[in-house]
Amino acid sequence: MPGTLVAMPGVLPEGEPVPRDGSLPAAARRAVGARGFGVYVHVPFCASRCGYCDFNTYTAAELGGGVSRETYADSVLAELALAARVLGDSPPPRVDTVFVGGGTPTLLPADDLARILDGIDRTWGLAADVEVTTEANPESVTPESLKTLRAAGYTRISLGMQSAAPGVLAVLDRRHSAGRAVAAAREARDAGFEHVNLDLIYGTPGETADDFAASLAQVVEAGVDHVSAYALIVEDGTRLAARMRRGELPYPSDDVAADRYLAAEAALHAAGFSWYEVSNWARSEAAACRHNLLYWTGADWWGLGPGAHSHVGGVRWWNVKHPAAYAERLAAGASPALARERLTGDEQHTEDVMLRLRLASGLPLDVLDTAGRAGAERARAGGLLDAGAYAEGRAVLTLRGRLLADAVVRDLLP
């Protein structure tokens, strides 16, 4: 499918042990920031759990009394201090992007989100043109909180709209009303946010073509400059998966999801948006999410928070998942990292092909081996790669190629 709803996995992968102090190999530290550097901050709190959600998040009832939102910012700042010690005299030249995700980051007081951003600036320094994004649920922000975030230096907000259809929101267990996401987007623009994104999910059981068309129309009318649209993926262990196993809801249809994707492309293109990644559209180059581009182009980032993943100089690691375990390790002066892996050259190549092919800028053909070039030629002949870009030495997906992106990737890799 052209896009999937992704999150930190329900079960963390295995890997090699991480030193108690979190130290990295010298080679990794020497390379930090060579392709850019970002900071991801995970906020694992939600007011309620959506039926499709497999993210590393917790409601108050799930956390019990052992974890407090009030002290969460202090734990993040403690990990930031550890990160500064780990990178030592090899810090990144600057922080190009900051992305606060969740969960629902805006369940934290806006002043705490401001304090975390200030801590990142004090530790490594924010680039003059830094992009700072926070995710938010539409019902978790107010005009006043948005103004506070904007004054603190947040430049971009990503709102989880998912759908404009009340019935679809009910199936997904979303708490906001059908019109609240558009209202929140307008409030963000009024507060001075330079860039506003609305997220959509398509292919939910019961969603009609008219439902999705109405969602797209509301997105366009909201005046945002970025849209993300993902096919619903049913994750094991979620309430939605249980309902489908019991036969209460049908499973998503790949054919319907493909139709929805084509509808999104047509409506957004007509409204002046251009795709720059298979599941993402922007009104201009400046509106593209630079933090996600940093991921997709192999740059470095430090992930702060429970379950957060990091990548520095070819070393990737992930933190313990539970907020209590995360806070306990930091309080003891230890790294919260659970395990790590050192990416081989072949692994880095595989990820580079998988991620860069999803971009409108495409993949340079000269990074492919002989078998990969043969696969690219087959994809071009089959109408899956743009012929003009191919002649210029780049593999760029056509619209049909975007629908079959995973198959194209498999053909380009050994």
Would you kindly provide a written description of the structure presented here, covering whatever features stand out?
Probably acts as a heme chaperone, transferring heme to an unknown acceptor. Binds one molecule of heme per monomer, possibly covalently. Binds 1 [4Fe-4S] cluster. The cluster is coordinated with 3 cysteines and an exchangeable S-adenosyl-L-methionine. It comes from Micromonospora humi. This protein folds into two domains: 26-296, TIM Barrel (Alpha-Beta Barrel), CATH 3.20.20.70; 345-414, no CATH class. The two termini are 21 Å apart. It is built from 17 helices and 14 strands. α3 packs parallel to α4 and α3 packs across α12. The chain has helices at 26-31, 60-63, 72-87, 110-124, 143-152, 166-171, 180-190, 209-221, 239-245, 254-270, 290-296, 323-331, 345-356, 370-381, 387-391, 399-403, 405-412, and strands at 37-43, 95-102, 126-136, 156-162, 195-202, 226-231, 274-277, 280-282, 300-304, 309-312, 315-319, 337-342, 363-364, 394-395. With 414 residues, it is α/β, with parallel strands linked by helices. The radius of gyration is 21 Å and the shape is globular. The relative contact order is 0.15. Helix content is 39%, strand content 19%. A nine-stranded mixed β-sheet has the order 7-8-6-5-4-3-2-1-9, with helices on both faces. The chain has a three-stranded antiparallel β-sheet with strand order 10-11-12.
